[in-house]
Amino acid sequence: MKQEKLLEIKNLKTHFDTPEGRVRAVDGVDLVIPKNTSIALVGESGSGKSVTAKSIMGLLPQPPAEINGEILYNQNEREKNLVELDPDGEEYANIRGNEISMIFQDPMTALNPVYTIGNQVMEIIIRHTDLSKKEARKRGIKLLGKVGIANPEQRFDEYPHQFSGGMRQRVMIAIGLACNPTLLIADEPTTAIDVTIQSGILDLIKELQAEFKTSLLLITHNLGVVAQIAEKVAVMYLGEIVEYADVKDIYHSPLHPYTKGLLEAVPVLGRNRGQEFTTIEGMVPDPFNIPAGCRFSTRCEEQCKQCIAGKKPQMIEVESGHYVKCWLHGGEANDGTESD
Ligand SMILES: Nc1ncnc2c1ncn2[C@@H]1O[C@H](COP(=O)(O)OP(=O)(O)OP(=O)(O)O)[C@@H](O)[C@H]1O
């Protein structure tokens, strides 16, 4: 069954002009987020995941950012190109927080220490709905209960410092879902919290995503957590998506050497001490000096002749729903010679 699109990103380019030069943080990304589906955007630090998310949210001041391409949002069956909206305007503000919301990495900096948890949950509900203060309080307390906070009525009036890191992240999830968004973006939602409770937070996000029938874009550098939560995976490297497939295909038949490297870098419990991690050889190239052709070619063991010649591979659908941008796959079809 073909899934209905919620958001379609077409040839998105988000660049920054800096004193050191132009950073092509997101450089020609295409991605479809279907309704009621969870997608993971995976890649090492600096690959452009957060910039993609902030471009969707309209959170990047222009300048220094320059955003081109299309972010087509299906709003009640009417398509709207978010790139054309004024990020500071009322229309974007209504979409942001109400229809598309985001959970950030660090709940301590995202929560305001001088307001109670309840005030912060209620603020979002009141800003985006017609509910009265009393009704918003009731809904807020219910939400805190839903995200697993015991005695939500009492805890509603407490301050962020009275909550543990994991509990604060649960509050952020409640805030993210307060208006029943069509898309929830979670940017490394477990990075800042204790490793022993990370899995519980991911389970909670997954459960609520299904219950609220929202789509989820999970941003992570760890392919290990993706299986628990995502149906589809987009692998990102230096501003480009290099592989896209169902989660089972990414795990069982990864095609891009970069995806294979990320899988090998997943920490595995029970491996010999000192061998818990492997990392991909070499350094991510400087964003001011992106390699011509395949961007991963400077770290890739394969060294295809096209890569040595600096030729850029195209994204090819190798099997139904499995896309890859690599000279090793796609045969004749991958004869693109476009250079960077
Ligand atoms: N405001 C900005 N001005 C200039 N460069 C930026 C800006 N924001 C991000 N970048 C650059 O864009 C590139 C992509 O950054 P981004 O934060 O999207 O990476 P990421 O994949 O989310 O990594 P991380 O997991 O470390 O957050 C990086 O080289 C980063 O330094």
From TrEMBL:
One GO cellular component term, please give it.
plasma membrane
* Extent of the signal sequence: none
- List the GO biological process terms: peptide transport
Q: How does it sit in the membrane?
A: Peripheral membrane protein
Specify where it is mainly localized.
membrane
Query: Where is each ABC transporter domain found?
Result: 7-263
**Subcellular localization(s) per the UniProt record:** Cell membrane
Q: Which CDD domains match?
A: ABC_NikE_OppD_transporters
List the InterPro entries hit by this protein, alphabetically. AAA+_ATPase, ABC_Ni/Peptide_Import, ABC_transporter-like_ATP-bd, ABC_transporter-like_CS, Oligopep_ABC_C, P-loop_NTPase
Quote one Gene Ontology molecular function term.
ATP binding
Q: Which organism is it from?
A: Halobacteroides halobius (strain ATCC 35273 / DSM 5150 / MD-1)
Q: Identify this protein by name.
A: Oligopeptide/dipeptide ABC transporter, ATP-binding protein
Indicate the family of this protein. Belongs to the ABC transporter superfamily.
Q: Which UniProt keywords apply?
A: ATP-binding, Cell inner membrane, Cell membrane, Membrane, Nucleotide-binding, Translocase, Transport
User: What SMART domains does this protein's entry cite?
Assistant: AAA
